[in-house]
Amino acid sequence: MDIQGNTDWIGGRNPVLEAVKSGRTIEKILIADGMNKGSIGKILVSANERKIPVQSVPRTKLDQLVEGNHQGVIAHLSAHTYGTMEDVYKRAEESGEPPFLLILDGIEDPHNLGAIIRTAECAGVHGIIIPKRRAAGLTSTVAKTAAGALEYVPVVKVGNLAQAIEKLKEEGFWIYGTAFSDQNLFETELSGSVALVIGNEGKGISKNIQVHCDALVSIPMVGKITSLNASVATAVVTYEVRRQRDLRGRQGTKKK
User: Fold this and answer.
1) What class has domain 2-77?
2) Which residue in 3, 21, 125, 220 has a CA-CA distance of 20 to 30 Å to 76?
């Protein structure tokens, strides 16, 4: 059962349960408030085993989204398969460059996410890391906005961004957060294995993620408005890395 012609969603207890059991990538499951018995209980158990986020919402919310009898449950399906860090490192190795990543801290607008993925592919980013919760996933809107870039840039979904960042640091990455700071982006050396953190459209990078960054860098602003759209900011910072890599003959020297 599709929601208003949108194949990102399926509704109904048996279709949702079978989708979970089949191993299909599911962004989240919405269940009507107060429903947790019978086949709904089986869905909850299976979702927990696969670590799929489940939300309880008013039944009217499901009624607004689905045509027909959803039986109190709908599942949001991914429009594309997620990648792994192995995919990211393979892409970097094939490029002959040190790994270059984007870490997205709570990008919620699917159009922004799609635009970021498209820019990342054009700028030579080797992979993107996104959180499982409170962020846009790989929906059909994202895939359409990315204009084919999802076929080339692995998007890795993780349960804990802070832990993922610390692991990257152990592997030799330098982590730069884009936030208000005294450190000018264009005066910062961005060599070696680099990961750029892009914050939420309204709130920016969360405080608990900022503390895990090696440095915070700022895009100079000279107008009356003091912030850029997340996808535009991404384009600026990724192409600064691209510019510096090109100046170094596309070799990039690892920092000591």
Assistant:
1) alpha beta
2) 125
